[in-house]
């Protein structure tokens, strides 16, 4: 029984499919996080620019 477990663990250590899956998972989480931060920053910048444009136009524009 012990030999079977040792052989199974040795085979699993040599198998790199799981390692690749973990690496892809980490890369995906990193890409989502960076993308979210960048989109939030971009959204905040656009909001600020639109507010500045509205202020420059004054009360003459109904959309502001």
Automatic annotation (TrEMBL):
Q: Where are the transmembrane segments?
A: 21-42
UniProt KW keywords = Membrane, Transmembrane, Transmembrane helix
Entry annotated with the keyword Transmembrane helix: yes
What name appears for this protein in its UniProt entry?
A: Flp family type IVb pilin
**What organism is this sequence from?**
Rubellimicrobium roseum
């Amino acid at each position: 029984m012990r030999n079977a477990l040792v052989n199974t663990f040795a085979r699993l250590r040599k198998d790199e499919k799981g390692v690749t899956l973990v690496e892809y998972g980490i890369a995906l989480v990193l890409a989502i996080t960076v993308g979210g931060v960048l989109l939030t920053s971009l959204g905040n910048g656009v909001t600020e620019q639109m507010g500045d444009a509205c202020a420059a136009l004054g009360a003459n524009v109904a959309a502001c």
